[in-house]
């Protein structure tokens, strides 16, 4: 049975006995947010990352979600992307398309991927322009506290080093305050060229969810949720700890292995 934990300013933490239980709850969560957004404004703007996250979202391809979710109202973005061809094995677009989006009736024109024929810098500028146009047409809302886009949901995985999207520890992209989209040519993980939403954009979202499974993520989860202890060696907080939605809701989806190093928090519901 899932445990729902109150983590104070770090949002809600949901801990599951296994990944199947996690995937089912994640599907319910996404479907509920989709329904709410469509009722309120006619569209659902979701930004995805890559990695194992897409596999966990595969429940959305199954009943009842394949029929009950209003897929035609979805607009899909990428919180980060590798600057490679869409057919490349390391493309987040390809991963999402093969694992989820080709199996549900999302409108092809509502998949807002990067221009993979451009350099990383050019692709970041082009993606920022594309998002800005969709803000102007109100496909994507605008933040109540800044000029940033306000996505209905930004869905992120977590690296074992605490990175989210393509925001890596101690990288200059973490300090970006003005741009919506940044780029990397020196990613510490391959491939080196990437684009990524910046922290101001992620933190402007109405909802942010971070998903982590496995013991290899336990230390990163601890540092992000609990904060560093005196014995932790770090130069700055891990990027995941910087995910602090200004007015939105943050939810962590963890299996018991990823949550194994967390401090104890009060269980609020089950």
From TrEMBL:
Pfam family, one: Glucosamine_iso
GO biological process terms on file: carbohydrate metabolic process; pentose-phosphate shunt
Signal peptide residue numbers: none
Xref: SUPFAM superfamilies: NagB/RpiA/CoA transferase-like
Taxonomic lineage from the root: Eukaryota, Viridiplantae, Streptophyta, Embryophyta, Tracheophyta
Family stated for the protein in its record: Belongs to the glucosamine/galactosamine-6-phosphate isomerase family. 6-phosphogluconolactonase subfamily.
EC number(s) recorded for this UniProt protein: 3.1.1.31
UniProt-recorded Gene Ontology molecular function terms: 6-phosphogluconolactonase activity
UniProt keyword list: Hydrolase
Pathway(s) of this molecule: Carbohydrate degradation; pentose phosphate pathway; D-ribulose 5-phosphate from D-glucose 6-phosphate (oxidative stage): step 2/3
Listed InterPro entries: 6-phosphogluconolactonase_DevB, 6PGL, Glc/Gal-6P_isomerase, NagB/RpiA_transferase-like
Source domain of life: Eukaryota
Keyword Ribonucleoprotein in annotation: no
GO CC annotation terms, alphabetical: cytoplasm
Name by which UniProt lists this protein: Probable 6-phosphogluconolactonase
Catalytic activity entry: 6-phospho-D-glucono-1,5-lactone + H2O = 6-phospho-D-gluconate + H(+)
Domain Glucosamine/galactosamine-6-phosphate isomerase: 17-252
